[in-house]
């Protein structure tokens, strides 16, 4: 269970998040919507400890998430994707996914400890797990290909695979449909639905593609100028006058 309460983030004179509160129950798929600059990515950056909150609390499975060191977020079962993709272009697809897997491996894993037999066994296990993910996400054929030069839809799937390699319980997706064709959006929605079941994921997805959000999410939270203006089922939020005025009218 994720419980966000009174979360406030300021950048100089800008209040990017203004006392935002909501809860996400295990297994929920929650859409986070709102106009550009509403604070959606800032919220993800707070949950992953990239940004410091000025006020408020975030509890994840009862723990105080805002007290967790940024590098320990993955160990708390939280992984994310990025709006502008965070892949290493020169690394192979498999190695990009392994970067995600190593984040949950033992500290010092990438050091000289690689010479130890026990660590080599773990490396083999991680590689097998990465290969299984590549298979599942239809990436096996490009596993040895550098990420650079692959089609955008493929890069999006690689980023998802990398996040999943960290074995998250809470997956934060930042605009996964941005740049995808209609057909790719439908495929991605089907994939995400299936992965959510298979991997018992709780998901928060920031997305401007309303067909996707309303079709796949159980709940939708809408931000405007850093404040929460709606929180309900897709139908409730779609029919909410404040949301229509602030966002959907223009979406
Ligand atoms: P979009 O849909 O365009 O991605 P968003 O809802 O994700 O927008 P944020 O990126 O969270 O919005 O930005 C919220 C506000 O905080 C904006 O006014 C933005 O300029 C500001 N902001 C975000 N990050 C920083 C930062 N590191 N320094 C200063 N201001 C920032």
From TrEMBL:
<feature type="domain" description="ABC transporter">
    <location>
        <begin position="2"/>
        <end position="250"/>
    </location>
</feature>
<dbReference type="InterPro" id="IPR027417">
    <property type="entry name" value="P-loop_NTPase"/>
</dbReference>
<keyword id="KW-0547">Nucleotide-binding</keyword>
<dbReference type="InterPro" id="IPR032823">
    <property type="entry name" value="BCA_ABC_TP_C"/>
</dbReference>
<keyword id="KW-0067">ATP-binding</keyword>
<dbReference type="GO" id="GO:0005886">
    <property type="term" value="C:plasma membrane"/>
</dbReference>
<dbReference type="GO" id="GO:0005524">
    <property type="term" value="F:ATP binding"/>
</dbReference>
<protein>
    <submittedName>
        <fullName>ABC transporter ATP-binding protein</fullName>
    </submittedName>
</protein>
<dbReference type="InterPro" id="IPR003439">
    <property type="entry name" value="ABC_transporter-like_ATP-bd"/>
</dbReference>
<dbReference type="Pfam" id="PF12399">
    <property type="entry name" value="BCA_ABC_TP_C"/>
</dbReference>
<dbReference type="InterPro" id="IPR051120">
    <property type="entry name" value="ABC_AA/LPS_Transport"/>
</dbReference>
<dbReference type="InterPro" id="IPR003593">
    <property type="entry name" value="AAA+_ATPase"/>
</dbReference>
<dbReference type="Pfam" id="PF00005">
    <property type="entry name" value="ABC_tran"/>
</dbReference>
<keyword id="KW-0813">Transport</keyword>
<dbReference type="GO" id="GO:0016887">
    <property type="term" value="F:ATP hydrolysis activity"/>
</dbReference>
């Amino acid at each position: 269970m994720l419980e966000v309460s009174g979360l406030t983030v300021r950048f100089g004179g800008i209040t990017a998040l203004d006392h935002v509160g909501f809860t996400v129950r295990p297994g929920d798929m929650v859409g986070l919507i709102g106009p550009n600059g509403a604070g959606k990515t800032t919220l993800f950056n707070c949950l992953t400890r990239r940004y410091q909150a000025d006020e408020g609390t975030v509890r994840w499975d009862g723990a105080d998430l805002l007290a967790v060191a940024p590098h320990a977020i993955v160990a708390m079962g939280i992984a994310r994707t990025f709006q502008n993709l965070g892949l290493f272009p020169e690394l192979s697809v498999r190695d990009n996914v392994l970067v995600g897997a190593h984040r949950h491996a033992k500290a010092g894993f990438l050091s000289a400890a690689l010479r130890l037999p026990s660590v080599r066994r773990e490396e083999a296990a991680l590689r097998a797990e990465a290969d299984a993910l590549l298979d599942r996400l239809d990436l096996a054929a490009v596993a040895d290909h550098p990420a650079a030069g692959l089609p955008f839809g493929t890069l999006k799937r690689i980023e998802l695979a990398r996040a999943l390699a960290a074995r998250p319980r809470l997956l934060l997706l930042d605009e996964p449909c941005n740049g995808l064709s209609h057909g790719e959006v439908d495929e991605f929605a089907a994939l995400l639905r299936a992965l959510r079941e298979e991997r018992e994921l709780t998901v928060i997805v920031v997305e401007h593609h309303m067909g996707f959000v309303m079709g796949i999410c159980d709940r939708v939270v809408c931000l405007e100028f850093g404040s929460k203006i709606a929180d309900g089922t897709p139908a409730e939020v779609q029919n909410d006058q404040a949301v229509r005025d602030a966002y959907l009218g223009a979406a």
